[in-house]
């Protein structure tokens, strides 16, 4: 949600800030703005829409200064327009701020400020920061920010600058901010994507830490004003990994990266037919597992439930993080709570994790972004190593999450002294090769996509371990093509959704062979009898399915536990091509953002 970049150094900040914003655009893209400290004071320019709209402004050519901040927005308070775009000024226009997060006591603070004569000019909660800093400012920006933060309830990634001070003040609570350490220059950004081309040396701020950044150094304190010592870390991702490499969109690139991302998730974790991972607590005494996550990550959790229960005989519950955090769940010290998050910053998942820790559960994170908040707060973690995922729709992180969950299930089994299924291990090692094969369905899927660009609805049906794949297929389609889509366990349709089926309704069956194949064929017949258009995803030549289906997508055969990884890929491609034919920029679908750091 929202991208922040700040610069202080000897270079012209405007182009650095604009280029940085472009790298962060996937976090929010309804409006953008920039503030640079010039000889005449702080200059702010804002524009509704994408960064390129801001970049087109003639005024930016003349905007010269070596300190600046910029922001790309995903609206929470106040509609996306120029007025509500960041940076925001105080009344005197001496102070400018950019903010990511939500101020929960906004109304109380607004009343207080208005009573004191401050005039707020936007509908945002964020503007409050500028006025509070103005209220407390007595020739020391850091002190004014600390006083401000003590009044604010809610979350923030905040950068503040003052017309008379050669520094940036940066503060974080619940919304990531990273300091990039350069030679005679410093950066601050919501994530490392915007820093990579300048520096790989970073310092991750933690909640309630405040940094004062000048061009040569940074000083970090906690909210009580005590110094905090932090070590510089190195970003492992490369600039090349963050680029499109000739693909039309990041989403397509990321779909095609899956042989590599899965290889990287597995790498070093299977050796001599054994699972080699380190977990900082005993897993053989776990009595129950609760997996909690949001969106696509929640779908991988549902798949994990199937094989964790099967392989370990430990009962598994899966819960939406947004529900889990508020429902006072019964959790004991023998329970393990697994949180899954690509970004490691999702607000609901983070809150669910904190709730589980309060109740003394052991916690494990399955996370992609190294150094992210969730990855720092879990007792133990398994990184996906899937590389940066820039497209808003999650693809390669999903398949890596499923693989990581399977590795963890096998690890528990091993720790319990039970045999590992050697065929499963072999298939896991061969998975990247099978993923390469399934990507060859690309052209076929593209042809099928052309037939469905005008439809209004879509059903995805699957059974068993492939039911969550149906959910994920439907989610991918609706979020990037804006076609209404639902996923169901195939047998459920006769309890309601079958009423929707007529010749206008496409129904995609995940019908690869398993113990439920015969049943899924019956479900297909039910759809055919009502003239639904059937797309069947299969992995064998099945005469009956061939007769029933209008379109067939054939994928390689694989052991049941790994079939979701293979089966989801044509579904990712189908959504991608439908969206592309419809002319939608699926890397930045409307109303969405990559990292959901607000409730
Ligand atoms: C869908 C999608 C979202 C995310 C969800 C959780 O394609 O990307 O549903 O999966 O917002 O995000 P993370 O995994 O970062 O916690």
Explain this structure.
With 599 residues, the protein is α/β, with parallel strands linked by helices. It folds into three domains: 3-235, Glutamine Phosphoribosylpyrophosphate, subunit 1, domain 1; 241-420, Glucose-6-phosphate isomerase like protein, domain 1 (Rossmann fold, 3-Layer(aba) Sandwich), CATH 3.40.50; 438-587, Glucose-6-phosphate isomerase like protein, domain 1 (Rossmann fold). It has 18 helices and 26 strands. It has an eight-stranded antiparallel beta sheet. The longest helix has 20 residues, at 396-415. The structure holds fructose -6-phosphate. Fructose -6-phosphate (F6R) binds at residues 294-297, 341-343, 346, 349, 393-394, 475, 479, 596.
What class would the helix/strand composition place it in? Answer: alpha/beta
Q: What would the CATH topology of the largest domain be? A: Glutamine Phosphoribosylpyrophosphate, subunit 1, domain 1
Task: Determine the mean pLDDT.
Answer: 94
CATH class of the largest domain: Alpha Beta
The residue fraction in helices comes out at 25-40%
Radius of gyration: 25 Å
What are the bound molecules? Answer: fructose -6-phosphate
Q: Low-confidence stretches at least 5 residues in length (pLDDT < 50)?
A: none
Terminal CA distance = 11 Å
Look at the structure and name the CATH superfamily of the largest domain.
Aminohydrolase, N-terminal nucleophile (Ntn) domain
Q: Which word captures the global form?
A: globular
Q: Which CATH-level-2 architecture of the largest domain?
A: 4-Layer Sandwich
Q: Biggest sheet: strands, sense, closure?
A: 8 strands, antiparallel
Proportion of residues in extended strands: 15-25%
Number of helices: 18
Per DSSP E runs of 2 or more residues, the count of β-strands stands at 26
Strand order of the largest sheet: 3-2-4-1-10-9-11-14
Number of structurally distinct domains = 3
């Amino acid at each position: 949600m929202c991208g922040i970049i700040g610069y202080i150094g000897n270079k012209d900040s405007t182009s650095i800030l604009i280029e940085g914003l472009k790298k962060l655009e996937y976090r929010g893209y309804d409006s953008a703005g920039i503030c640079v400290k010039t000889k005449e004071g702080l200059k702010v320019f804002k524009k509704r829409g994408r960064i390129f709209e801001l970049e087109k402004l003639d005024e930016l050519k003349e905007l010269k200064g070596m300190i600046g901040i910029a922001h790309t927005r995903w609206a929470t308070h106040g509609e996306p327009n120029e007025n509500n775009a960041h940076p925001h000024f105080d009344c005197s226009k001496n102070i400018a701020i950019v903010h990511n997060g939500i101020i929960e006591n906004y109304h109380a603070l607004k009343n207080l400020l208005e009573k004191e004569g401050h005039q707020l000019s936007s509908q945002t909660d964020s503007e409050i920061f500028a006025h509070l800093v103005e209220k407390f400012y007595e020739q020391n920006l850091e002190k004014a920010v600390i006083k401000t933060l003590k009044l604010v309830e809610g979350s923030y990634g905040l950068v503040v600058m003052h017309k008379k001070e050669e520094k940036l003040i940066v503060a974080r609570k619940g919304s990531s901010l990273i300091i990039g350490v350069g030679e005679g220059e410093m950066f601050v950004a919501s994530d490392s994507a915007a820093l990579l081309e300048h520096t790989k040396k970073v310092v991750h701020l933690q909640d309630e830490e405040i940094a004062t950044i000048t061009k040569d150094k940074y000083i970090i304190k906690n909210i009580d004003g005590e110094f905090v010592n932090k070590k510089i870390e190195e970003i492992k991702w490369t600039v090349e990994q963050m680029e499109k490499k000739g693909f039309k969109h990041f989403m397509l690139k990321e779909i095609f990266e899956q042989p590599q991302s899965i290889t990287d998730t597995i790498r070093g974790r299977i050796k001599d037919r054994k699972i080699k991972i380190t977990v900082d607590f005993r897993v053989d005494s776990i009595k129950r597992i609760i997996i909690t996550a949001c969106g696509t990550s929640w779908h991988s959790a549902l798949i994990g439930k199937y094989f964790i229960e099967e392989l370990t005989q430990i009962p598994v519950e899966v819960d939406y993080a947004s529900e889990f955090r508020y429902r006072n769940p019964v959790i004991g010290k023998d329970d393990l709570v697994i949180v899954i998050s690509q970004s490691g910053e999702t607000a609901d998942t983070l809150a669910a994790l904190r709730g589980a820790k309060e109740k003394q559960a052991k916690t494990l994170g399955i996370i992609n972004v190294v150094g992210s908040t969730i990855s720092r707060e879990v007792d133990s973690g398994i990184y996906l190593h899937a590389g940066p995922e820039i497209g808003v729709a999650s693809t390669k992180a999903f398949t890596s999450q499923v693989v990581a969950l399977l590795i963890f299930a096998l690890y528990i089994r091993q720790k319990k002294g039970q045999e590992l299924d050697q065929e499963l291990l072999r298939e896991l090692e061969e998975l990247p090769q099978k993923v390469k094969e399934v990507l060859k369905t690309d052209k076929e899927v593209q042809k099928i996509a052309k037939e469905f660009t005008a439809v209004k609805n879509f059903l995805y049906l699957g059974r068993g371990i492939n039911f969550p794949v149906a959910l994920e297929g439907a989610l991918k389609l609706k979020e990037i093509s804006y076609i209404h889509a639902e996923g169901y366990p195939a047998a459920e349709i006769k309890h309601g959704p079958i009423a929707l089926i007529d010749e206008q309704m496409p129904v995609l069956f995940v019908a690869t062979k398993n113990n439920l194949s015969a049943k899924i064929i019956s479900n297909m017949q039910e759809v055919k009898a009502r003239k639904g258009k059937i797309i069947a995803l299969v992995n064998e030549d099945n005469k009956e399915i061939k007769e029933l289906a209008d379109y067939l997508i054939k994928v390689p055969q694989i052991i049941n536990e790994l079939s979701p990884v293979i089966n989801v890929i044509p579904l990712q491609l189908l959504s991608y091509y439908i969206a592309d034919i419809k002319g939608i920029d699926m890397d930045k679908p409307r109303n969405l953002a990559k990292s959901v750091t607000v409730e």
